[in-house]
Amino acid sequence: MSAISRVAPRIGGVGFDLRMAVLGTIFVSGLFLDGWAHTHGRVDQSFFTPWHAVLYSGFALNFLVLAGTVGLNRSRGYAWREAIPSGYALSLLGLGLWLIGGPGDLLWHTLFGIEENVDALYSPTHLLLASGLVLAVTGPFRAAWVRKNVSVSLAEQLPLALSLAACLATLTFFIQYTHPLVNFWGIRPDSVNDTMQAFGASSLLLISGVWMGVLLLAIRRWRLGPGVITLTLGANAVAMAFLGWSIYPLPLVVALVVASALVDGLYQGLKPGPYRARALRLFSFLAPVILVGAYFLVGGLARAIYWSVHLTSGILLLTGVVGLFLSLLVAPPFSAADD
Length: 339
What we know:
The chain is globular. The protein is about 70% helix and about 0% strand. By secondary structure, the protein is mainly α. The termini are far apart.
């Protein structure tokens, strides 16, 4: 249709992004509620549980709002491609995967039973739903990515921060056994044998890579406002701690939230970015060291560190190396051909 036939502006923008970011947070919260029920023995062999009801209600809210927005934009004279708010085409695809994955998950459970432990994370239908969830909740992030100007303030960057936090939460949910607030690597008595030490060391390196990968993706595109990193990493710590079998590890959660704020302050001081490579390298090395270091420090005070000083200090160093190597993808070193 021509522009003359359009009777109202297209729905979209920062206000719409904030609504979708809040709905995405509700969606991911349903995932964590269902995960908490699984890790605390609150599920049976039925697909129809209160936890699934909350999770799928979150999906329904996101689908109805986004699909309804597309319908309203169409009614205002916009073509199908224009009717989808910028950045949300993949979100619509992700929600569409839930229309397939939901019934598919019911069929899978009917045929093969309810998954338990790590099996529950990696059944094919759950991986399909996980992919759809990541696509769905990162709409505000993609919308901000294609926007020309984004103010350096938490108020305007709140939608992308919530979207980034929801994405990180989903990723860490599906590798939850690697997270230090789910399996207390180095600060639990049974983590001293060779197998547990090797698995724990690998897990801390992996989770550090996920933390830094998500942060560096955002740093590559924006100058992040104060509070964005604290919100992204701090919310992850608060959420992940609910998935462990033991009581809620409040001292460790506080430690990681405070460490997230310290990383935020380090970022604001160094101002790292693609064109400030030295600052980026230093930030990328120090950030995971601060996070894992705070975990070990408070974990040692609250419980005990059962790993040797050799292993503990070595892991701290290597988490920094992981961040440093990832920074090379954001700001590659110049080669002779670049001169």
